[in-house]
Amino acid sequence: MVDIIIAFLYLSLLMYLLFGGADFGAGIIEFFTSDAKKDRTRLLTYQAIGPIWEANHMWLIITIVILFVGFPKVYSTVSIFLHIPVSLLLLGIIARGTAFIFRHYDPDQGKFQPLYNLIFVYSSFLSPLFLGILAGTIISGRIDLEAASFPEAYLFPWLAFFPISVGLFTVAICGYLAAVFLIGEAQTHEDQMLFRKKAIRMNVLTVVAGALVFLAATLEGIPLLAGMLDHPITILALVLASISLPLTWKYLRENFHMRARILVGFQVSMILFALFYSIHPAFMVFKNSVLILKDAAAGPATMNSLGIALLVGSVFILPSLFYLIYSFQKKPFQPLAKK
C-alpha cells in the first residue's frame, strides 16, 4: 500500500506541474505580450483556462493531504524549515485566483482592471517560482536540521543560486506549456502564429534555465548531473525528452496540436522523473542526512486507510475531471461581451 500512495504522490506532483503549470504559464505569457495584443491574449487564455483553472489545484490539495496523513515527518519538515517559500507560494496562488476572477466579473471594468491585471501577471510568475524554489531546496542538501539561527534554518537553505535557478526553470516550463497548449485554442492563423512564436521563445528560455540549473548545482557542489548520468533510467528519460522536442515542433508545424500537447507533457514528465529519480530512494536531501519516503511513512493502519481512500476517490474524481476538460474543449468559441 505504501508504494501505491507514493505513486499517487508523484502523480499528483506531475499533474499539478502539467495542468496547474499551464495555468500559471498563461499569466507568464501575458507578461511577455505587447500591449497591442494583450487583450486578445487575455481573451484566449480565459477561454482556455477559465472553466477548469480552479480544478487544477485539486492536485496540490491531494499532494498536501498525502504528505500530512501518510508522511507527517516530510510535511512537518517542509512546513517548518520552508515555511517562508510555502507561505509565499500559497499567497501567490490566492492572489492570482482572486485577480483572475475579479478582472472578468468586476462590474466596474475600468477602474481596477490595471491592478487586477498586475496582480494576475506577477502572481502567475511568483507562484511557480516559489514552487520550483521549494523543489530545488528539497533536493539540494541545504536544509540544516541542527541550524542554530533563524537565517541558517529558514532563509539560507532556499535563498541560494541553485533553488532560485530551479525556480526560474519552473517558470520557463510553465510558460512553455501554456504557449503550446494555447496554440490549439487559437481560432485564427494569426493567433496560432502568435503563440507559436511565444512557444519558441519559452522553449529557448527553458533550455537556458535548465543549463543554469546544472551550472548552479556544479558551483554549489550538488551532484545533480552526476546523479542523472549514473543511472541508465535517468539517462533514458533525458534522451526521450530530447528526442520528443523536434517531434513536438514537427507536429506544431503540421497543425497536429493535440499530439504536440501530449509530447510537451511527456517532455516535462521525463525531466521531472529524471530529477527525482537521480536522488532515489531519498525524497529530501539534508545537510548531513537524507529522508526516504518509505522510512517516513505513517503506521500500517493509517497508510491502508489512506491508500483505500485514494483508490476509491480516483474512481470518481478522475473521470469527472477529464470529462470536465473534454466538455469545455468541445464548446464553441464565444468571445466575452465587453461591459
UniProtKB/TrEMBL annotation:
State the Gene Ontology BP annotations.
aerobic electron transport chain
Compartments (UniProt record): Cell membrane
Tell me, what's a Pfam family for it? Answer: Cyt_bd_oxida_II
Concerning InterPro entries, the annotation shows: Cyt-d_oxidase_su2
One GO molecular-function entry = electron transfer activity
* Its membrane topology: Multi-pass membrane protein
Which residue windows are transmembrane per the record?
Answer: 6-32, 53-74, 80-102, 114-139, 159-183, 204-226, 232-252, 264-286, 306-326
UniProt keyword terms in alphabetical order: Cell membrane, Membrane, Transmembrane, Transmembrane helix
Output the Gene Ontology cellular-component terms. Answer: cytochrome complex; plasma membrane
Source superkingdom: Bacteria
Q: Which PANTHER family match?
A: CYTOCHROME BD2 SUBUNIT II (PTHR43141:SF4)
Family per similarity comment: Belongs to the cytochrome ubiquinol oxidase subunit 2 family.
Protein known as? Cytochrome d ubiquinol oxidase subunit II
Q: Which organism is it from?
A: Aquiflexum gelatinilyticum
